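Final report, Chapter 2: Outcomes

The project's central promise was a pipeline that accepts a single protein chain and returns its three-dimensional structure in a standardized token representation, suitable for archiving and comparison. That pipeline is now operational. To close this chapter, we reproduce one record exactly as it appears in the project archive, with the input sequence first and the structure output second.
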Amino acid sequence: MYKYVKKFRLMYMNKKVKICKGFSCAFPDKIFFEGYAYIGPNAKFWGEGKLIIKDNVIIGPNITIMTSNHDYNGTKLPYDSTNILGNVTIEENVWIGANVNIVPGITIGEGSIVAMGAVVTKNIPKCSVVGGNPAKVIKTRDVQEYNNLKKQDALYLKNKFNA
């Protein structure tokens, strides 16, 4: 049976990662940080699929990210012991609000914002602002302004960690 672990070695490619109290996960060897990241209190990462968190990602409190699900089309009811894996990728410069749930197999596009309480069930396009259950695009960020800020290296976490 799977169990949450309290002490583990996550796969850091960059040591500039802040993980707050109450964090728990299963399969820590499947979690990859590629740059600066902030993980808010009580985050839960669960599953056997990979979770890739790219550079300058801020994740609010009480988030749940799943990278596997049960097979309800299997040989038992309501599901069998087979796990269906679905990698989750959070692209660079993403902000995810509090109490968000992300299902397996999702990519959250670069520069996107996920509103508090959203349930992400589909891929999110680059520079989108999404919210709701299921999460839907509410608006799109100004891509030109986003690209200008990125070009200027105006990255909140990088500036904060290096201050």
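Archive annotation: The chain has a mean pLDDT of 90.
This record, like all others produced under the grant, will remain available to the consortium after the project formally closes.
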